[in-house]
Design a protein that fits this description.
By secondary structure, the protein is mainly α. It is built from three helices and no strands. Helix 1 packs across helix 2 and helix 1 packs antiparallel against helix 3. The longest helix is centred in the middle third of the chain and has 13 residues. The protein is elongated, with a radius of gyration of 14 Å. The N and C termini lie far apart (54 Å).
């Protein structure tokens, strides 16, 4: 097995049903890019990011953005 498959398998142990998103996130990591995960609350976005960080021995940080943080017009 190769390293990328090992990483995806490790993340899949925690996050079920999002293999295609996991592959895209891993592609971005390999390419040296950034990832913005957008979805409804409770879908495992933070857990996916933490799982990737642990799988690659990386660092995890998170910025929360909600509409109530926008300036009022």
């Amino acid at each position: 097995m190769n390293k990328t498959a090992d990483i995806l398998d490790n993340v899949s142990k925690v996050i079920a049903g999002k293999r295609n998103v996991s592959e895209l996130v891993l592609t971005s990591i390999i390419a040296g890019g950034h990832v913005l995960l957008e979805d409804v609350p409770g879908t495992g976005k933070t857990m996916m990011a933490k799982s990737f960080a642990k799988s690659i021995d990386g660092e995890f940080s998170r910025i929360q953005f909600t509409p109530d943080l926008l300036p009022r017009t």
